[in-house]
Write a structure and sequence with these properties.
four-stranded antiparallel sheet; 4 strands
């Protein structure tokens, strides 16, 4: 069989962090949920069974945790910082989909959350 596409993902990560434009969001914080999917060719890892032939998602998780602890006004900025850091560390990542949701947005709405979803392509992996 030939591999068509492959992804590594982390799903439903939960954090308490201090992002937002309102002063209360910066002092009390809020709960967040994050999903990440990285397009990456896992063909070598499928055959070798060696963690050195893949992207270590534990390392990715550590990077996400570090970025979530840096306060920002906008979730767009947080999500982009996470994706950019991953792409700079793992140059072989072809694309990143990231979804970041603030679970209790301060907008007096009855909802499960509000957030941002980015679909980014690593232009360093594109071929002409």
């Amino acid at each position: 069989m030939k591999l068509n596409d492959s992804y590594i993902f982390l799903t439903n990560l939960r954090f308490h962090a201090y992002h937002g434009v309102m002063p209360q969001e910066r002092s009390v914080g809020n709960d967040y949920r994050l999903d990440l999917k990285m397009k990456y060719n896992v063909a070598n890892a499928m055959k070798s069974d060696n963690v050195n032939d893949t992207i270590n998602y534990a390392e990715v998780y550590k990077m996400i945790c570090q970025e979530m602890m840096v306060p920002s006004n906008l979730l767009e900025r947080v999500a982009y910082r996470i994706a950019d850091r991953i792409a700079r560390r793992f140059l072989v990542v072809e694309a990143i989909d990231i979804k970041l949701c603030k679970l209790n947005p301060p907008m007096e709405a009855d909802c499960d959350g509000a957030g941002v979803e980015l679909h980014l392509i690593n232009d360093k992996t594109l071929t002409d």
